[in-house]
Amino acid sequence: MIKAIIFDFDGVLVESAHIKTEAFRRLFSHWGNKVHEVVEYHIQNAGISRYVKFKNIYENILHEPYTEEIGLKLGGKFSKIVLNEIKRALFVKGAEEFLHKNYNRYLFFIASGTPQDELNGIICFKGINKYFKNIFGAPATKPEIINSIVKKNKLGKGEVVLIGDAESDKKAAESTEIHFILRLNAENSHVLSHHTIKDLTELKEKIMEFDSVSTNISYV
């Protein structure tokens, strides 16, 4: 039986995944013919820290030296591009209702690749912080976050499900041996999962499927 639900944030609770995709396009627009490759790399690696992406983009796509100073400058510019837009972004259909009706039934957590301070500010602004036992952002990785949640709350791995929208979310669930549900969107057709939802109006029924049968954990 599911006791804890871990939500990714962008693209799962809030319709903001496309905002970050556009931010990468704008941030690297002066690199000309490399922009498309940068954007595709971001989409293929959605859900991980922007700073990890910056380093890989510089070293493996732009073939330029990368330093911590460059990363901090890019991070500052990135936040300026996305922060207000994400605060204004709509909730995923069904998200507010599901959180409000079920936060006393399950332990709710957020695990995001967004920097911790920025994530806290956005969630407080959206008025949903009261629903979550803990909120986790970068630099912690999602496998680290999941393992910490399972251990500190004395949960069985079959009692936990991660709701994500990226290949990195699926891999995090797989590596930590918890359930995974993929929230489908326009940018993640490359991600394959046995359990999918179009939005959070379908989440209660999907959770009940896990509760009603002895489900082996599967990802594809």
Largest sheet: 6 strands, parallel
Terminus-to-terminus distance: 21 Å
Strand content: 5-15%
Supply the number of structural domains: 2
Q: Low-confidence parts, pLDDT < 50 over ≥5 residues?
A: none
Q: What is the helical fraction, as a range of percent?
A: 40-55%
**Under the CATH scheme, which class of the largest domain?**
Alpha Beta
Average predicted confidence as pLDDT: 94
Radius of gyration: 17 Å
Report the count of strand segments: 6
Q: Output the CATH topology of the largest domain.
A: Rossmann fold
Shape: globular
Assigned CATH architecture of the largest domain: 3-Layer(aba) Sandwich
* The CATH homology group name of the largest domain: HAD superfamily/HAD-like
Order of helices and strands: EHHHHHEHEHEHEEH
Structural class, from secondary structure content? alpha/beta
What is the count of helical runs?
9
Explained architecture:
It is a single chain. With 220 residues, the chain is α/β, with parallel strands linked by helices. Helix content is 48%, strand content 14%. The protein is built from 9 helices and 6 strands, in the order E-H-H-H-H-H-E-H-E-H-E-H-E-E-H. It has helices spanning 17-27, 35-44, 50-62, 68-88, 95-102, 116-126, 142-152, 167-176, 203-212; strands at residues 4-7, 107-115, 134-138, 160-164, 179-183, 196-197. Strand 2, helix 6 and strand 3 form a beta-alpha-beta unit. Helix 1 packs across helix 4. The longest helix has 21 residues, at 68-88. The chain is globular. It starts with a strand and ends in an 8-residue tail after the last helix.
